[in-house]
Design a protein that fits this description.
heterodimer; A: 319 residues; globular; B: 3-stranded antiparallel beta sheet; two-stranded antiparallel sheet; NADH-quinone oxidoreductase subunit H (chain A)
Chain lengths: 319, 674
Amino acid sequence: MLLLGAVVVQLLHVALMLAAAPLLVGVVRWLKARMQGRRGASPLQPWRDLEKLLRKRPVLAANASLVSEVAPYVAFAASLVAVACVPSFSRGMLLAPVGDLILLAGLLALARMALALVGMDVGTAFGGLGAAREMSFSVFAEPALLLCVLTFAILAGTTNLDLIAATFRDGGLGLRVSLALAAMAMLTVAVAENARIPVDNPATHLELTMVHEAMLLESSGRHLALWEYQAALKLTLWLALLAAIFVPFGAAPAGAGPLAWVLGLAAWLLKMGVLCLALAVFESAIAKMRVFRVPEFLGAALLLALLAAALLFVSTGLA
Amino acid sequence: MLTGLLLCILLLGLLALAAVGLGRHPLAGRVVHGGCLAISLGFAGLALAGLGLGLPEAPLALPIGLPGAGAASLLALDGLSAWFLLLLGVTGACASLYALGAPAGPPRSLPPFPLFLAGMAICLAAADAFTLLLGFELMSLASWALVAADHAEAENRAAARRYLMFAALAGACLVPAFGLLAAGAGGLDFTALRAAPPEGWRAAAVLALALAGAGAKAGLVPLHAWLPLAHPAAPSHVSALMSGAMTKVALYVLARLLLDLCGPLQPAWWGVPLLAAGACSALFGALRANMEGDTKVLLACSTIENIGFITVALGLVLAFRGADLGPLAALAAGAALLHALNHGVFKTLLFLVAGAVAHGAGSRKLDRLGGLIHAMPVTALAALVGMAAAASLPPLSGFASEWLLLEALLAGWRVGDIGFQVVAAAATALVAMAAALAAAAMLRCFGLVFLGRIRSPRAAGAEEVPRLERLSLLLPAGLTVLLGLFPAAMLGLAAPAIAVLAGPAALPPARGLALTAGEGASTYLPLAVAGLLVASLVTVWFLVRRRSTGATLRGPVWNCGFIDPPPWLPFGDPLSQPGAAGMAQPLRRMLGGSLLGATETVLMRAPGDPRPGHYAAQAADPSEAGLLAPLARLRDSVAGRAERLRELTIRGCLGLSFGTLVGLLALLAWLEGG
């Protein structure tokens, strides 16, 4: 019975994430437009864009290899597996034992690598430029992420996401300075990983300032649809990850019934809405920074995460 | 079993003699490499049998050895030796298979190859200090001969000279290290050494000497300067073996000395030097791999990085064992052993790929290759597998051992001392950074070699390598996938080796098909991850293709409307595609300036000036200016002073000899008394 519940929750979760991802992007865009005094497209617009792109035939450059055709599916599959492991409205999903934070980092790296390979496949100036920059940003984002994981691992004794969320919810840890510092570091990493302002501009039309989009300049049709969907999934994943770790309240416990699920869903939607609003406010209030200042931005996240871990060392040493 | 091992080693010696005898005979290469292939498979089979069915208890005494009572050479096979022998067998088999298919090198490169394998096998199977050093030196000399095989070129000669220098340094440190151990034990065999672990300053001296000696051979920063020179100079299958197996043999010596022979009671701080050296090696190696423009140099730098990972894991074993944290020591030991094997296999594969590319497309320079995925699809596939493993992407082998290493690092705070906790946290950040840098380096290498447009006319005529060579690439590629899917089974095999490193009660950090850490709270299920990836890949492909049925069209490249190249540039304008220096630019500016002293000089002409502009980027390894140059100056000044001795009077000469004699006697008296 418990197993059946876990399977159902898992399937519902994947369906929810797949449905919510383009919507989330639409909501952020709509909120940003309202804040900038525009009316903005409907939050459903990303869904319509995906529909349209799927109807179109993809055009590949004459010298594109198999990489350009396979990589979108690989990146999408990796993101899907990663997103399936991050709890949303309920805990105790079927894949909870698989959901390890280091594995999540690995799956995201797999998707990033597939994207960068596509950027280099045809041999254009912007694709290579974007690939080199994307990989360079990850060099600063990964250690910051790992140090955040260190803080969680010290507090929860594991790197499993479901267990970390359970510990933070029930463990009576209270408000901890280290967790606040780690949350700031995670937010910074999330902004960089999702190519949002100030690291990258998702709405830019100037090729020289592109990082993420620069690698997709040669993609079209269903390939482009997959890439856009994948980016939306990644944004959803990061927001859900932040919600699952730092605000683990309201999710239905393992083995609960449909009523608890509905409550959990409402709590999750609320959390996502707040995070979307925060992202939109942040992006509207800040300007994009120069590429070579990004290491400082992510270096600050690294230092914050290190500080969080060091504070824990001191406090456990005193206790 | 030991007799079989001895037989294999003797056969290798015979093969070397046969190679000398056969000389320039056209079949010489086939005989030698075929023999090496069979014997390597024999090594792997023996090691597997030993690890799976039980290891021989009593050592085998050889009728050779140092003069003196009870000093016969001993051969034995315990868990640790058997594990590294398995690695040697697998990499040796792949390298020999490649050599069978590749075009033959100069005949003088044949005899040292079996000797190289034999040296490594002797070093691994030795059960006393003399035999171990004998094997170690045989390995050094034979590999030096292989590096120097193509000595017509000046840079190869310089590489071989520097390699010999570092090999001599390694020997010069390891002999006194074993001497210090033996001084308290009264015998050279390992049981005697284990019975009398060093204490006080002797223990510290053994630690320093072992780290310097084995580190110089393994390529730990700052003693890594020979690796990026020696690997490109040697033929590809030899560099594969040097990088895949030889550096691991050096790490085996390090582990044997510090974790086995020095006894289980060394303090936890012993791990700190290893942790520091390993983390610095990982960072420097991975960063340099992003700057280099030659495939084999790039791979050599990535070897420095991976050696750093293994050393970090060994340091963690020492620290956890010193703090009485048995299960965590087993976790770190599992990470070290698994990463040694995984790196051995995928780095062998990548060096063989570099050789195949040099064979098929005529160059090793990133700036002369490009677009080879069309002409060499099988090589490209093998390269993709190897590079994804080197970039530690799930579900391949590199990720499994990286996961164990990170889990061990994340548990580093349990040692308790706040100083160590901070060191472990810093090492976590550095290892994560190095892993991301490795991914960037591998992407750059694969993208520049196999993707994009062709960069030179020779690369336009590239051809896929012959069948045997392709097979030798697909074999380690398949192994990389298998090792990635079944790391828990490999750890089960490695249980005797983990017991040697982490104490007899240690259990491998695996349960069923999953890797586990932290009393089973964190798990990594490679098979489940691979299954999920494949399942979602198939589902997504099926759903998307059902919704979007149109066939893919081909058209001219869009490139943001960049104008088409003129007809005399059939492969497009080379300047509109990023090259090796361009792909390295972001990291060179972000990290290279502070860590590698990277500089860029841009010469921009005034508008209207028709002369071409100029851009140059350089990066210098700090170990050249910081360590090797002062050492060279020291050597010159010492040599200059020593010259003055020749001008001493007879009285001066006699006084000097007498003084030396008295000094040595005083030292002896002090050592005997102490």
